[in-house]
Amino acid sequence: MTKRRIGVLVSGRGSNLQAIMDKIAAENLPIEVAVVVSDKADAFALERAAQAGIPGKAVVRKNYSSKEEFENTIDGILREHNVELVVLAGFMRILTGNFIAKWRHKVINIHPALLPSFKGLDAQGQALEYGVKVAGCTVHFVDEGMDTGPIILQKVVPVMDDDTHDSLANRILVQEHLALPEAVKLWCEDKLEVKGRKVYIKK
Ligand code: GAR
Prior knowledge:
Elements: E1 4-10, H1 15-26, E2 31-38, H2 44-51, E3 56-58, H3 67-80, E4 85-88, H4 97-102, E5 107-111, H5 123-130, E6 134-141, E7 151-158, H6 165-188, E8 192-195, E9 198-201
Parallel strand pairs: 1-2, 1-4, 2-3, 4-5
Antiparallel strand pairs: 5-6, 6-7, 8-9
Glycinamide ribonucleotide binds next to helix 1, strand 5 and helix 6.
């Protein structure tokens, strides 16, 4: 069976990348992580890719004179590797409308909050600060806004009275590691149908 080819964009430790690679291996899915692109040269995610024999590239913003040139470089790498789906797994930059338009409904992101609450940076800290009783994570298609695209999957965790930032973030992370690989699998099986803001999961 021909494998669906995905490209994963990262900025840091890459535990979500690892969860995707582990699910592909454990379930022998017809999906290949074709390339990992990091905007940080020292991201541990690049080491994880190397360990798994996956090509890894660092594309660092300051080495490009414009955001357009930076994004075009990423776009070029993804196309070079025949990527069909772009997965943002802890990629901490906003992609412009120009990039997104080229990859409409082909970019998905994991966010550590129950969107539309707590968009942007440190979602777990925002949830703790606000005093919500449940938190969680969201996998969504990326559109031109920040954390605003159609929602694919969400997973919920309780917030405990004695939670610290780390304890809550870790509880959410366990669910991220389930949600993101599941969403990748559904996309690769052509089971996601987007109608306006809604994503339907085909049986
Ligand atoms: C994850 O918690 C992910 O949800 C978050 O960064 C972390 C990356 O961890 N992403 C965002 O906040 C995006 N706005 P990882 O590098 O171990 O996968």
